[in-house]
Specification:
The complex is a heterotrimer of chains A (413), B (449) and C (594). Chain A is α/β, with parallel strands linked by helices and 413 residues long. In chain A, strands 1, 5, 6, 7, 8, 9, 10, 11 and 14 form a 9-stranded mixed β-sheet that branches. Chain A has a 3-stranded antiparallel β-sheet with strand order 2-4-3. A two-stranded antiparallel sheet of chain A has the order 12-13. In chain A, a hairpin with a 2-residue loop joins strand 3 and strand 4 (91-93). Chain A has one domain (7-188, 247-399): 3-Layer(aba) Sandwich (Alkaline Phosphatase, subunit A). Chain A has helices spanning 7-25, 32-43, 68-73, 98-105, 124-133, 145-152, 199-210, 218-243, 254-267, 288-312, 379-390, 396-399; strands at 46-52, 62-63, 85-88, 91-93, 109-116, 163-166, 184-185, 274-279, 319-324, 345-350, 357-359, 368-369, 372-373, 377-378. Chain B folds into 3 domains: 21-60, no CATH class; 142-260 and 262-283 and 301-305, no CATH class; 310-447, no CATH class. Chain B is 58% helix and 4% strand. A two-stranded antiparallel ribbon of chain B has the order 1-2. A two-stranded antiparallel sheet of chain B has the order 3-4. In chain B, strand 1 and strand 2 (209-212) form a beta hairpin. Chain C is an alpha+beta fold and 594 residues long. Helix content of chain C is 42%, strand content 23%. The radius of gyration of chain C is 30 Å and the shape is globular. Classes of the chains: A alpha/beta (413), B mainly alpha (449), C alpha+beta (594). Chains in contact: A-B, A-C, B-C. Chains A and B meet through strand 7, helix 7 and helix 8 of A and helix 12, helix 21, helix 24 and helix 25 of B.
């Protein structure tokens, strides 16, 4: 499936053989401490979801630039073979997606091609709801897949939130569940105890929270230990912010800054396992080139900065990033230098633990369904992979059916 | 605490004695639970009367006409903007200023029970109509409230049940009325849901109004919860209410909301109250009267055994100190803390209890308190906090702490904590007062009611 | 009140006499010779008594003092301690505060900021030496009473009263206060050495520098340029040395060429380019019986404006604001020259990458609304580079439903380059935009727009109105959307895009006003109509005030009525921006009701 001349594949090979030899020196059997460490690390794993709202033009993201049908279908929008960033198999990234090309080069990006679902819906709202809930309109949709997942993981009440949504938009359906409430935060400041930096005040608050009450009121003891850990979390965050001297420069756009906030929260040791951010504007019905280029630039540069920041903070092994969009766009461009709502598109999974490279073939441009690319991989297989392989949970109840996971993570993960 | 509560003792009329006296502290507990809290003069006045008299007073208090007119005018103004979030602020305003605290607290209960979210309904008019229905019925007849809610436009829109055709009965409302509104899980089968859904066919919402479409009603015979007949929607609601578990379910929820989060009251404890509820023809007022006049309510099983909700916390802090503030910001802050008025997280309403608490909500609570007391829109008795307290002759840190403890705390503040707080407040400046109050409201004890 | 006009006439005469006899320019010449050449900011009030009289004796002051809120404010602790202080001062001086201040400041109040020492200095000139001496003695007594007095330092025979890092001194009829010793010494030296004063400065003295100009502000080129822009009738005048500030690297942000966002660029882009070049700024504040006027001027040259900002002042700075049609109940008009099409297309040179990304997104969205036509080139480019905006109060008497919030109507008035071609193009575009709104509206459950066409003579109208939902039909508190009946009007080359059909109709048919010739931008607000518009929404304003302030109904009513009362005293407010000759003038004027 993978072209043997691809840089990333070669790199991955070297990497895994290095791990192999490390294991061999321990006598062929991984010592129990390593297994324990692996289990522990699974407990601290984090998923960052980036929603690309509006319907990303997958065909101009992962581009079959030499394909004749592509050139013919897109006289104004086609990107020239000389301009794309070559990623093998006759495909190339959009020239503004340099960030992703670098991640692929570094062996940290999986590109899952041809993702979608049967009988695709082309309404933003409806298709978005399908991606969020994994259910169709005729079913009762009370919760989302991430909500069901964090619910099944049974976080102890009173500790850090199981998931966090960043941004001022309405909370995404994917995070809804009957029993777990997910906070939406706009800024990092919401996670820090506000007020003066007066040492006496801060110290008093911490001591007041830390003192054990030793009463028979269980509820009071519960609130006391929660308050104590909340104040500690805030102090930890303050301290880590003070020492936060990231050499990484995040792009000055909303996504970059939100991912920076996520990195800082992770850096402060918060036990949250899911972060959700949104990037809108992909509904490019006209004048697509400039907008799409800008958005892809923001996406690639922000994710790249985020991952290298995590690496500096030594949290890289803990984190995976997933992107999705509610649908791709039509193969044929429209008359106003734009594209209309379509169907299948690519998803990206990024992170140090990711098995880098292209997954699945590019959808055939000569085999369309109502003018749209056909999917060959159901999006729930990607979800199943994250639930099972990344978080080690059972996915069937969460996804309401059994989906076969993909090979998206390297063996050591 | 492992215990079995004697139901007879629990629901008998509270007779103050030495171990549980009727004093400012117990009156403060009553006002916190049967409302949002009381000011010092209100507490003093209450202790001059018997607990039963005070409870009757809480149930009887009506909003005067002039106040109703003002609330109407605020709601109209909010509707005029078309922005449903404004209604949230109108409600926060009402909670801050209403003389009828218990009515408002109970309206909030019904809002959580019949949870309907403005984010989905979006029409402020419909949200207001429902809110007024809940307020009007707060102490009234549960049967008629349930029937009206079953035809309430906002509710049916929220539950995707605005259309209900006989060829494709919408099961959503049928499920929720049994699971969440009346009986609780395990009291019905999937077949009951399907059959009940057929009763509601033809119940539609068109242009924001309920209408019965007789052509879409399935008039065939149905079999629901052991009864058979060609039932209408009204019959369906009646049959659900006739179940033995209905009064038990409602009373359990009321006890949890007004008396204690945990442990969950067992069936024996609920039984006498549920029976009384049923025998009165599902009248809510007598149940509330009984609850607030009971031994259980004033006992250690109840005092300090609830986690403050965001609304109780924010409105309570202000009301106890005659405070007012920008109600838009107030409503937004409560929403950030997870209890947006008119914005319940799901049809299940707010779970309450321990689910209010995590590191994010605790920090947000503390930050909200700070923002509230430092906002230039916040006034206490129309003054600054410092001026307000000094007008009450509370100038020493210790007397301020003791005052706030009486009004705001269900659980005593440990002596060591008071000493620390005193030190913080010692400089006597308005900044040190802010620090002190902020630290006070960040105490674990403050999260309990 | 009946004697008031007489008093005004007296003041007018007095002020006039002052200007003639004691030529302000002559007086500032004196002060400029006392200040160092490195002065970067200078403010003067040559006749404070006139300013005091204009403010304190105006009927508006009497009215404000009669207001409830004023009475309340005077009960505050701060105000009371102010009164106590004033009383003490009066007792000490042995005069009422006002004549005392008038005498003490009869020769003017002057303040300056020096770039070299970064110090500030305040100069006050009394009626004569006796007044100043009396003041000095009395104030010394006062400080002695308070036990604050320290022994004065001696400098060239003068007593210097130390204050923090600076000090105060009296020289003849001058009081000098500064926060910087070096700056203070320089001023005192010049006062002592040159013996300058307006009388003997005229006398020919055999010196290399007869007037004592060398090294003083008088010799400063930027200052000299600013004095040329001085209005002899203004009561307060200020100067800032932009060149020095720029050279010293101060206020970098202020002199930066780029605007933060497109709106800021549109409003002030050309001003920013001017500030990068202009050497000085001169501000005149003029108070008359019925107005306050502030005029800020800088030197200006058309070739200072870079090519990418030609859209702002037009080629050679000749862009003129359009003359706008006049309609009744006009609340606000804005007329300006801006070549928006050019700005849109030059966005790449004007903004940073982030804004350009956003503009690209907007361009894409707008082109969708305009059925695939290029927004910058084809839509914006089809108009003359003149923009008019008219806001007028709406009349709801014959309308149903009546919205609860009664917004004024607003309209854009533009001129078509090729009316014959563009009329039908724009009509089609308008129709498809309405169709687009209807689709979006239907998705959101809003009422639908119904279109209509009217033609009478040369006036061509396409109107639309919201078909009221059944529940709203006869409402007098209908949703806000019923404020709008989006419409377009054409007559000749005039194109009107309006939020209501009636304003579109009126604007298309009305004759134009006399325009302010040569003006780049002109904005006018009619306070009378503003009061009426606010009054239309009084109930709404009270409700919103109750909620935002957490007030009782009574408090909010009082506060809204006070606001209305306050605005009732204002007649109108205006702003003009105009490059004229070699000067750029920004003028703000507030007119009050007599």
């Amino acid at each position: 499936m993978f072209a043997s001349h691809s840089h990333s594949t070669r790199r991955r090979f070297l990497k895994s053989s290095a791990i192999g030899s490390a294991v061999l020196t321990f006598g062929g059997v991984a010592p129990s401490s390593l297994i324990r460490a692996a289990e522990e690390s699974q407990a601290g794993r984090i998923l960052v979801v980036i929603e690309m709202a509006g319907g990303n033009d997958g065909l101009n993201t992962v581009i079959p630039s030499a394909d004749e049908t592509y050139k013919k279908s897109r006289p104004a929008l086609a990107i020239k073979p000389s301009d794309v960033l070559n990623i093998g198999e006759g495909l190339g990234f959009h020239p503004e997606l340099r960030g992703f090309a670098d991640l692929l080069e570094a062996g940290k990006l999986a590109i899952v091609q041809g993702v979608g679902y049967l009988d695709p819906n082309r309404s933003h709202f409806e298709s978005m709801d399908i991606w969020h809930t994994c259910q169709r309109k005729n079913e009762v949709r009370a919760d989302g897949w991430l909500g069901r997942m964090v619910e099944s993981r049974k976080n102890a009440p009173g500790s850090d939130p199981a998931a966090i949504h960043l941004g001022s938009e309405k909370q995404p359906f994917a995070l809804m569940s009957r029993n777990v409430r997910v906070p939406s935060i706009r800024t990092l400041e919401q996670f820090r105890l506000q007020g003066t930096d007066d040492v006496a005040f801060r110290k008093a608050v911490q001591e007041l929270a830390d003192a054990r009450r030793g009463e028979d009121n269980d509820l009071l003891n519960f609130v006391q230990s929660s308050t104590s850990s909340a104040i500690s979390a805030s102090e930890r965050l303050s301290t880590s912010l003070k020492s936060y001297r990231s050499g990484v420069k995040y792009p000055e756009n909303a996504l970059g800054q939100q991912l920076k906030t996520v990195a800082q929260l992770i850096g402060s040791g918060l036990q949250t396992s899911v972060y959700y951010v949104q990037l809108g504007g992909f509904d490019t019905h006209s004048q697509q080139p400039a907008v799409h280029a800008a958005l892809l630039g923001q996406l690639g540069d922000s994710v790249k900065a985020f991952l290298s920041d995590l690496e500096q903070m030594q949290h890289a092994d803990q984190v995976s990033v997933m992107t999705f969009s509610e649908f791709g766009r039509r193969v044929a461009e429209n008359a106003s230098e734009g594209t209309d709502h379509g169907a299948a598109g690519p998803m990206f999974i990024a992170g140090a633990a990711v098995r880098s490279g292209l997954v699945g073939r590019h959808p055939d441009l000569n085999d369309l369904e109502e003018g749209d690319l056909k999917h060959h991989t159901d999006f729930r297989r990607v979800y199943a992979t994250l639930i099972e392989k990344w978080f080690g949970c059972d996915s069937s109840a969460i996804l309401k059916a059994i989906y076969e996971p993909l090979e998206l993570f390297s063996d050591k993960a | 605490m492992n215990f079995v509560i004697d139901p007879t003792w629990a629901w008998s009329a509270f007779q103050p004695d030495q171990s549980t006296p009727w004093n400012m502290k117990s009156a403060s507990h009553l006002f916190r639970r049967a409302g949002f809290g009381a000011t010092l003069p209100q507490l003093e006045e209450a202790t001059r009367r018997t607990p039963a008299e005070v409870v009757s007073g809480l149930l009887d208090t009506q909003e005067p006409d002039s106040f109703l007119q003002q609330m109407n005018s605020l709601a109209q103004s909010a509707i005029a903007t078309g922005n449903v979030q404004q209604l949230s602020a109108v409600w926060a305003y009402r909670m801050l200023f209403t003389p009828a605290q218990l009515q408002e607290k109970t309206t909030l209960f019904w809002h959580g029970h019949f949870a309907t979210g403005a984010d989905k309904v979006t029409d402020p008019k419909l949200m207001r109509t429902q809110n007024e229905l809940l307020r009007k019925s707060a102490f009234g007849d549960f049967s008629s409230l349930l029937l009206e809610i079953s035809r309430d436009p906002a509710m049916l829109i929220y539950l995707d049940s605005a259309t209900n055709r006989k060829s494709h009965p919408n099961e959503n409302y049928a499920r929720e009325i049994m699971e969440l509104f009346c009986l609780g899980e395990g009291q019905y089968t999937e077949t009951d849901i399907r059959e009940l859904a057929r009763c509601f066919t033809g119940w539609e919402i068109r242009r924001g109004e309920f209408r019965f479409n007789r052509f879409q009603h399935d008039s065939g015979s149905k079999s629901i919860l052991g009864q058979e007949g060609d039932f209408s929607g009204e019959d369906g609601v009646r049959i659900v209410l006739e179940q033995k578990s209905a009064p038990e379910f409602i009373v359990s929820k009321l006890v949890r909301y007004f008396v204690m989060d945990e442990p969950a009251a067992d069936a024996d404890l609920i039984a006498p109250l549920a029976a009384e509820f049923r025998d009165s023809g599902m009248q809510i007022r007598p149940v509330l009267q009984r609850i607030f006049s009971s031994n259980l309510f004033y006992s250690a099983y109840s005092v300090g055994r609830k986690v403050r909700s965001p609304v109780e916390m924010a409105i309570g802090l202000l009301r106890c100190l005659e405070g007012t503030t920008n109600t838009f910001e107030l409503a937004e802050a409560m929403q950030t803390l997870g209890q947006g008025l008119l914005y319940p997280p799901s049809v299940k309403g707010w779970d309450g209890g321990r689910t209010w608490i995590n590191s994010s909500t605790l920090l947000s609570r503390s930050n909200l308190i700070r923002a509230l007391i430092t906002s230039d829109k916040t006034r206490f008795g129309k003054e600054s906090l410092q001026k307000y307290l000094s007008d009450l002759r509370l100038t020493k840190p210790r007397s301020v702490i003791d005052h706030l403890e009486l009004l705001l705390f269900a659980v005593a503040i440990p002596e060591a904590a008071k000493e620390k707080l005193e030190l913080l407040m010692k400089p006597g400046t308005s900044a040190s007062l802010t620090e002190g109050l902020h630290a006070l409201c960040t105490l674990p004890e403050f999260q309990l009611s | 009140m009946s004697h008031f006009p007489l008093r005004l006439i007296v003041f007018w005469l007095a002020a006039g006499a002052f200007v003639d006899a004691n030529s302000a320019v002559g007086n500032d010449g004196v002060v400029a010779r006392l200040l160092p050449e490195t002065t970067v900011g200078f403010l003067e009030v040559p006749e404070p008594s006139v300013v005091m009289a204009r403010i304190l004796d105006h009927p508006l002051s009497t009215r404000i003092q009669a207001m409830d809120v004023f009475t309340k404010a005077t009960q505050s602790k701060e105000y009371r301690s102010f009164l106590t202080g004033r009383k003490l001062f009066e007792l000490q001086i042995g005069m009422d505060w006002r004549p005392a201040i008038e005498a003490l400041t009869a020769g003017g109040i002057y303040a300056a900021a020096d770039g070299a020492t970064e110090g500030l200095v305040l100069l006050v000139r009394a009626k004569d030496e006796a007044v100043m001496e009396n003041f000095r003695v009395k104030i010394l007594e006062l400080t002695r009473l308070n036990g604050e007095q320290k022994k004065p330092d001696d400098y060239r025979g003068l007593s210097i009263y130390k204050l923090d890092k600076g000090g105060a001194a009296v020289v003849r009829d001058w009081l000098v206060v500064t926060n910087n010793a070096d700056l203070g010494k320089g001023v005192l030296d010049r006062l002592l050495d040159a013996q300058v004063n307006s009388d003997d400065a005229e006398e020919p003295v055999e010196k290399a520098d007869p007037a004592g100009v060398v090294g003083t502000l008088s010799a400063n080129a930027e200052f000299q340029r600013a004095t040329q822009m001085r209005d002899p009738h203004s009561q307060v005048w200020a100067f800032a040395n932009l060149k020095s500030l720029r050279d010293a690297g101060k206020a970098k942000k202020f002199f930066e060429g780029k605007a933060e966002n497109p709106l800021a660029e549109l409003l002030a882009g050309g001003i920013q380019s001017t500030l990068q070049q202009a050497i000085c700024v001169s501000s005149n504040l003029t108070l008359t019986d019925d107005s306050v006027q502030l005029r800020i001027s800088t030197p200006w040259q058309a070739d200072w404006i870079p090519e990418e900002r030609t859209y702002f002042f037009g080629p050679d700075g000749n862009g003129k604001a359009p003359a706008l049609p006049v309609v009744p109940e006009t609340l606000l008009t804005l007329a300006t020259y801006r070549n928006v099409s050019e700005m849109w297309l030059r966005a790449g040179d004007l903004f940073d990458e982030q804004i350009n990304d956003k503009l690209a997104e907007a361009d894409s969205g707008l082109s969708t609304v305009f059925a695939g036509r290029d927004f910058g080139e084809e839509i914006l480019g089809s108009f003359e580079p003149q923009i008019g905006i008219v806001v007028a109060r709406q009349d709801f008497t014959a309308v149903s439903p009546v919205p609860a919030i009664r917004l004024p109507a607003f309209a854009l008035v533009m001129t078509l380059r090729e009316p014959e071609v563009m009329r039908s193009e724009l009509r089609r575009t308008f129709q498809s935009a309405i169709g687009f709104f209807n689709i979006v509206g239907a998705q959101n459950g809003n009422p639908q727009l119904e279109m209509d066409m009217q033609k009478s003579g040369d006036v061509d109208l396409i109107t639309s109105r919201y078909l009221p939902l059944k529940k709203d039909q006869d409402s007098t508190s209908a949703p806000i959307i019923y404020n709008f009946s989006p419409s377009a009007g054409f007559s000749g080359s005039r194109f009107v895009l309006s939020s209501t059909a009636s304003l579109a109709q009126q604007l298309a048919a009305a004759p134009v006003a006399q325009s302010d010739a040569g003006v780049n931008t002109h904005l006018m607000l009619d306070a009378g109509v503003l009061t009426k518009t606010l009054d239309d929404n009084r109930e709404q304003l009270i409700s919103q005030n109750m909620m935002t302030e957490g007030r009782s109904r009574e408090e909010s009513e009082a506060s809204i009525d006070l606001l209305l009362e306050f605005i009732r005293n204002v007649k109108d407010a205006g702003l003009t921006l105009e490059p004229k000759d070699d000067q750029l003038n920004l003028q703000l004027k507030l007119t009050v009701n007599p």
